[in-house]
Amino acid sequence: MANIPSELLSHQQKVCRLYKRAVRCVEDWFHKTHERRYQIALLRERFDKNKDIKDLKYAKYLLKEGEKEYFSKIHYQPITFAESITGGAYGRECYTPDWALDYWHPLEKAMYPKYFARREQMKDEYLKWYFETYPEEKKKIDNH
């Protein structure tokens, strides 16, 4: 089921996506800015040369040949964006639970006095609400 298309793409969208992939491929091969920009300009010229073709059969043929050429020139170790699925930083952001702030040193808490004063007030309000909503929990704690 991996190859079932979730949407239908127009020919124009396919060409645009091929162009973007080809530009990324050029970026993989050419690391100096002036070389990369020159190669991308040549690539754009090749795409622009065929943009006014009205014969859809020939346009599809050119697209197929372009994809073949792209896959033959694809880099063996493409550059990936750090936050993309294949990137090195994907999924690194971690959730820090609120209780971790309870273990801050008092000198650290003193740097943000308003925040921690409001936080303590909110914790007290939450405990009050919780034990009013669930009085049986208060009894369990008192019995232990």
TrEMBL record:
Record GO biological process: mitochondrial electron transport, NADH to ubiquinone
Where does it localize?
Mitochondrion inner membrane
Question: What's its job?
Answer: Accessory subunit of the mitochondrial membrane respiratory chain NADH dehydrogenase (Complex I), that is believed to be not involved in catalysis. Complex I functions in the transfer of electrons from NADH to the respiratory chain. The immediate electron acceptor for the enzyme is believed to be ubiquinone.
Q: What are the entry keywords?
A: Acetylation, Electron transport, Membrane, Mitochondrion, Mitochondrion inner membrane, Phosphoprotein, Respiratory chain, Transport
State one Pfam family annotation: Complex1_LYR
| Signal peptide extent | none
Q: Residues in domain Complex 1 LYR protein?
A: 13-69
- UniProt key word Transport: yes
Task: Establish whether keyword Mitochondrion is in the entry.
Answer: yes
Q: Which organism is it from?
A: Atta cephalotes
Instruction: Identify the GO cellular component terms for this protein.
Output: mitochondrial inner membrane
Superkingdom as given in the UniProt entry:
Eukaryota
Topology term for the membrane: Peripheral membrane protein
> Lineage of the source organism?
Eukaryota, Metazoa, Ecdysozoa, Arthropoda, Hexapoda
Q: Which gene encodes it?
A: 105622533
Task: Please identify the protein, giving its name as recorded.
Answer: NADH dehydrogenase [ubiquinone] 1 beta subcomplex subunit 9
Family annotation (InterPro entries): Complex1_LYR_dom, Complex1_LYR_NDUFB9_LYRM3, NDUFB9
User: What quaternary structure, including any partners, is listed in this protein's UniProt entry?
Assistant: Mammalian complex I is composed of 45 different subunits.
Main localization of the protein described in the UniProt heading: mitochondrion
